Amino acid sequence: MNFRELYEKGLDYKDFLKTLDIEDKEIMERYLKLVVETLDENLKEKIKSIYKDIKILVFAEGWCPDCQINMPPIFHITNINPKIKMKILKRDTNEEYLEPYFINGKPKIPTILVLDSTYREIDNIIERPRYVKELLGSQKESESIIAKRKYKKGEFLSEIIKDIIAIIK
User: Fold this and answer.
1) 3-class DSSP state for residue 168?
2) Do residues 121 and 114 make contact, with C-beta atoms less than 8 angstroms apart?
3) In terms of DSSP H, where are the helices of the chain?
4) Which of 17, 71, 131, 169 has the fewest CB atoms within 10 Å around its CB?
5) CA–CA separation, 25 and 44 (whole Å)
6) Dist. CA 46–CA 42, nearest whole Å
């Protein structure tokens, strides 16, 4: 898989939003507003301190709740630090490239690939931030429902940012 070619064919975040239904676009705009308003200063400083050129390639669809939740914080990272860039490819037209990342034989989105300046994959995040996966996997059913509600309300938006920072550093 040639990540450079895939990255160059991807859409910028704002162009991706133009392809969405109005409802999906509004949901993503709400999450972006929330992350801008609530992001911890310490995390902002960590983002600003990244000196490497980083490319983030996201396979996504606008109708997907996990994409709606996790893409706005990634976009916000790119606004804080211009050394970090993001491009988005629609899953439905690029599914063959996701095969190495399939879980139980299926593509999960968003599939987020963190690439270095030479377009080599450093690491990836599939579907949800690690903390959220652990939280949902380790809870009793009633606690898991509460955790999912918090996730969908945007209470864990910073977790995807923490994952990306950990990958880059």
Assistant:
1) helix
2) yes
3) 3-9, 13-18, 22-38, 41-48, 65-80, 130-137, 141-153, 157-168
4) 169
5) 25
6) 6
Q: Is 162 helix (H, G, I), strand (E, B) or coil?
A: helix
Residue 143: the pLDDT is 81
**CA distances (Å), 106 to each of 133, 140, 154, in order?**
17, 26, 26
**In the sheet where 54-60 sits, what is the strand order?**
84-90, 54-60, 111-115, 121-126
pLDDT at residue 33 is higher than 70: yes
104: its two tokens:
């139980």
Other Cβ atoms less than 10 A from the Cβ of 9: the count is 11
Quick one: pLDDT at residue 139? 66
- Crossing angle of helices 41-48/65-80, nearest 10°? 60
The more confidently predicted of residues 28 and 137 is: 28
Residue type, 95: E
CA neighbor of 7 nearest in space, from 54, 56, 62: 56
The domain limits of the chain are: 3-168
Q: How far is CA 19 from CA 58, 100, 103, 107, in A?
A: 15, 26, 27, 21
